[in-house]
Request: fold
Amino acid sequence: MGKVHFREASQEKDSGLLFEMINESYLPDDGFFQEGLRIAKFEEMKGLFEMGKFFLMVEEVDEEKGEEKGKEEVVGCAHCTLNGKINQLKRMKFKLLTIKQSCKGRGLASKLINFCHEHAREVGCSFGDIDVVSVKPWLIKVYEKYGYRVIGE
Reply:
């Protein structure tokens, strides 16, 4: 595995990649989408960029495997939105946390969650919320390891 870094996504350059990666990752095990659990139309990407920021997790290629030096691959993403305040303390909402299908099982989700927490602290947030889609209920256990708890269904 190569070195991982994060960068803010560009609506113009990265919307197509994000749209494809998110929809592939959020496809339920039975192969059929349920309405509202994915980005149904490419045009919805514009609204997501207006609401908050997408961050891309980018991995540098592994030169030891003979891959081209300097080449990078987007392996994950997250959408972050300022989400109001609780008792005057700012909160951040994280959603569409996504790891590329071919990259799952390599510990990248931990790096993505930790990056989201770091970003929230940098902009002065004291609380964080994560949306979990119903077709991936096992994700709740992953997020609980980071101190999150279920507050709605």
